[in-house]
Amino acid sequence: MAQHTGIYRRPDSRFWWIDAVLPNGERIRQSARTEDRQAAEAYLAQLKLAAYKEAHFGIKPQRSWQEAVIRYLAVKANLRSIGDVRRILRKLDPYLGHCMLDEINGDLVWTVIQGEMKKGNKPATINRYLATIRSLLRMARDEWQWIDVFPKIRLLPGEVERDRWLTREEASRLIEACPAHLAALVRFALATGCRAREITGLEWNRVDLERRTAWLNQTKNGTPRGVPLNSDAVAVLQEQVGQGTRFCFTYRGKPIRWEVTNSAWHSALAKAGIEDLRFHDLRHTWASWHRQAGTSCDELKELGGWKSRSMVDRYAKYATEHLTVAASRIENGRGGDVLTFPTISPRSNRKRA
After folding, report:
1. CB-CB neighbours of 124 under 10 Å
2. So what's the pLDDT on residue 231?
């Protein structure tokens, strides 16, 4: 029956199914998502009409925001931050969930901005939403060819870059206040700049203490990288030997699967008298210490596994040694005399004429 009508029943589903070749040559096999045969046939007719228009007149069939979200999540499924992507898309659903992609314009984007501002969200939070919309629409245009254009989406100004790092004395206080398993994580983060998941996912078969190197396969950007281990990092790892057979860092012999910034983290911060600190700020601390010690931005980029130099330039302000000579040029008693250039007034010019 499906060969003649394109509509058929499956014994394992209550819905009607579609198996048909569209006018543009594409074969589709999918559920019609309806138990009504006439509704299923109408849906197939709609698909055929859209394909005919696209094939003969170049008119793209309309695609919905929800269709795009499903495909976008499938493409991004391997991201370490996929949970954050899903959360943002759920927040955007009340604004865009009812829209077709070609209906999304500047006014709708402004509606998102205004709605989130009324909720009291800061520019940084709203910018995450705007960046996700822009990324999805760009993919729909450039990779899927679902749309031809999308509105220009600018991020909001006024986003304050987080600048939180620890002094050596604060770091020592924090380590002393942490329980042993958490102190090990903190010390390793400060020694290597590794992220929390990179540390808790580090396995012994990816560590060579003699060569003082670790190889990470669970990185934020999905690209494996090597991490040189300084003496502090080696010392932390040597203390963990024998506590876990597979993972380097464990809690009571078991892998650390939970969020690092839990009650133990907050208790340690309170005990150490440290406020407004996230575990990821330890990576900022590591990078800041490196720049203060004279490590170049290019070296820091390689050490931290950043893909672009722009991500590292934020730490340039912590190293000013290369500007010391320039700063000293106007010290008291130095710098030479200021030259005075003679000027000719317009009146004198008229007299000479």
Report:
1. 14
2. 96
